Amino acid sequence: MAGRVLVAVKRVLDYQARVRVKPDKSGVDLTNVKMSMNPFCEIAVEEATRLKEAKLAEEVVVVSIGPKQAAETLRTAMAMGADRAVHVQTDEEVQPLAVAKLLAAVARQEQPGLVLLGKQAIDDDSNQTGQMLSALLGWPQATFASKLVLDASAGKATVTREVDGGLETLRVSLPAVVTADLRLNEPRYATLPNIMKAKKKPLATTSPQELGVDVSPRLQTLRVEEPAKRKGGVILGSAAELVDKLRNEAKVI
Amino acid sequence: MLAAAAARAGGAALRRVGARGLHWSATAASAAEPAHSHSHPLSANEDFDLTEDQRQFQHVAETFAREELAPYSADWDAKHHFPIDTIKRAADLGFGGLYVGEDVGGAALSRLDAAIIFEALSWGCVPTAAYLSIHNMVCHVIDRYGTARQRGAYLTALTSMEALASYCLTEPSAGSDASALKMTARREGASGDYILNGAKAFISGGGVSDVYLVMARTGEPGPKGISAFLVEKGTKGLSFGKPESKLGWNAQPTTAVMFDDVRVPSKNRVGQEGEGFKLAMKALDGGRINIGACSIGGAQFCLDTAREYTQARQAFGGPISQFQATQFRVADMATSIQASRLMVRHAAAALDAHSPTATMECAMAKRFATDACYRVTDDALQLLGGYGYLKEYPIERYMRDLRVHCILEGTNEVMRIIINRELDKLDPK
Predict the structure, then answer these.
(1) Between chains, do A34 and B38 touch, taking CB under 8 Å as contact?
(2) Where is the Electron transfer flavoprotein alpha/beta-subunit N-terminal domain (chain A) (predicted)?
(3) A235-239, B121-125, B377-381 — which is least confidently predicted?
(4) What φ, ψ does residue A168 adopt, rounded to 5°?
(5) B52 touches chain A (CB under 8 A)
(6) pLDDT (tens digit per residue) in B58-76
(7) What is the residue range of A144's domain?
(8) CB B238 within 8 A of CB B259
(9) Residue A239, Cβ neighbours under 10 Å: how many?
(10) Does B63 sit within 8 Å of A192, measured CB to CB?
(11) 3-state secondary structure of A233
């Protein structure tokens, strides 16, 4: 039994929303844009919920770091099956290291047997938080999980990871940090009755100050730009012409 | 391994398909040029419009619409396929008994909540959302007017959509003049059973549904002689016509339903004898909100699609969205949709509040929203030009689907009769 499972969730730009860069290039414009739970976090919540349903976990606690509206993302996670939520409320920019420190502080309070995260968030695509959290806690990590099997009696988890060469299987001692890849599961939808029930589940609010974590940025964003617009292709007359262009124009061969 | 590589690429792939989308993309029918996403005329971040609960309901319905309905709806239309598996999945989320009590598996939401949900669902597939609205209308009648036995016997199966329901009021020769219906329910002296004879027409879900809410004459001519009954599929003497060939709403079957000495026990009568018409009309107040909401979702899809198209389509040296003729049309479309949305939601709130103006507001909202939103689909078709006329693009389908909303749940002419009558009642001159 992993006891308590802690799941980190992030509120991000919806995956179908059109991304607009602010005119001053300081970041992505989030005004009037649909926001949702990061899809990889949905997978992590689903996995934790399944562990609880399989009686391999006693309690699922979700945690999110962000502004007031992050509470809605926590409600969604509770509607999917999490038991209670911790909201670390801040309007400041929180970078992966700060997030990892905050999560480590929450983990020390909650004493989970397992921390589940998405492998990365689709807004910044950093793919750092889980790894840094594992280092800060001194717990083993298994990232990009496509399969998770808990061995309750041995206090271990067997995790199949998607790596470049194929699949790698690791065995880690609990407590551990596992990050979810796309194929770990197919997350459920929150049902209407569960959305109503989620309102009654406890949601505790805390802050970086209360957790004693300095979240001041260590990285400075210089400029955010849209990718270059794709230009129309050209049809070439011959293979020789193609080779010529690759060599002299694109300079790739 | 290609898929794995795409997954490792991470955000970019997910931004296109979503966590669930990638699993299903292999089986998804290729709907040509679906609109990119819901546009949010009212910010999801601002609290003044919807409550947090309503935003959550809306989010679930929108996600279901874009992942489970929109990719397939063109195929369902072409093949005249009634997506019963998808409908049952919708019921798993609570869409089968939106405003039915929780004790029988309902979600116990308000009419306003339901209007928000139907709008979101119809963005992905109008006829599927509309079928759900009809099913919900019957569920409501049983929940509100049914006996404890009827609630227990039917609603658990109906809210989970193990059983589907149809609403049977219209007859071949009694549509707008519904209280002139001819179908009879004669009470048999000895058993107390009712013997139903006659025919119903234009029944959504006919032949597929398991439970039919049937209005039949038990007494005098006119509205006061009508009673309501629940008739189960498989009852002796109950039969169905061939599926009608229709302009739109092809993802759900429409048939005639025939009653030839169909015996119905008195315990299956809903409400008192003579209450059937009143109850049928009350149900339609809510049905009108839902059909209005379904028009809004369909129109919003067309606006989203047209805006994307006009920004991409080049003519006379630039995107056609830069022409004022396009901009004015798009602005008018968006305004029509917003006005419809406000009227439908206000009418829903009036019904929730049992306002004396509710019947009038429901009729006004249905009349306005279904007309205005149908015109939006026509405008969208014009903006897409020749492509809009092709079945490869979705606009003509939404136009065909929305056209019938001006006719059913009471024609828009009947809506005007109701508005006049209610005006005279509320504010006599």
Answers:
(1) yes
(2) 25-215
(3) A235-239
(4) -120, 135
(5) yes
(6) 999 999 999 999 999 999 9
(7) 4-249
(8) yes
(9) 8
(10) no
(11) coil
> Which residue's structure tokens are 């629940």?
B230
Amino acid at B233: K
**Helices B11-24 and A39-53, packing angle to 10 deg:** 50
Q: Do B45 and A32 touch (CB under 8 A)?
A: yes
Per-residue pLDDT at B36: 52
- Which CATH number does the domain housing residue A109 bear? 3.40.50.620
B409 is catalytic: yes
Separation between Cα atoms, residue B268 and residue B271, nearest integer Å? 9
- Structurally, how many domains does chain A consist of? 1
Which residue, among A12, A13, A16, A80, would best test binding to B if mutated, counting the most B CBs under 10 Å from its CB? A16
pLDDT digits (tens, 9 = 90+) for A93-126: 999 999 999 999 999 999 999 999 999 999 999 9
Report whether pLDDT(B3) > 50.
Answer: no
Question: In chain A, which among 10-49 make CB contacts under 8 A with chain B?
Answer: 14-18, 31-36, 39-40, 42-43
B394, two tokens: 């979705």
**pLDDT tens-digit profile of B269-287?**
999 999 999 999 999 999 9
> Which residues on A lie below 8 Å from B136 (Cβ)?
none
The answer, yes or no, to whether ipTM is higher than 0.95 is no
Give A-chain residues touching B93 at CB under 8 angstroms.
Answer: 189-192
In this complex, do A192 and B94 lie within 8 Å of one another by their Cβ atoms? yes
A198: how many CB neighbours lie within 10 A of its CB?
22
Q: What is the pLDDT of residues B207-240, one digit of tens each?
A: 999 999 999 999 999 999 999 999 999 999 999 9
Chain A environment of B8 (Cβ under 8 Å): 144, 162, 164, 181
Q: What whole-number percentage of chain A has pLDDT above 70?
A: 99
Confidence bin at A2 (pLDDT 50/70/90): low
Domains along chain B with CATH numbers = 33-159 (1.10.540.10), 165-276 (2.40.110.10), 278-426 (1.20.140.10)
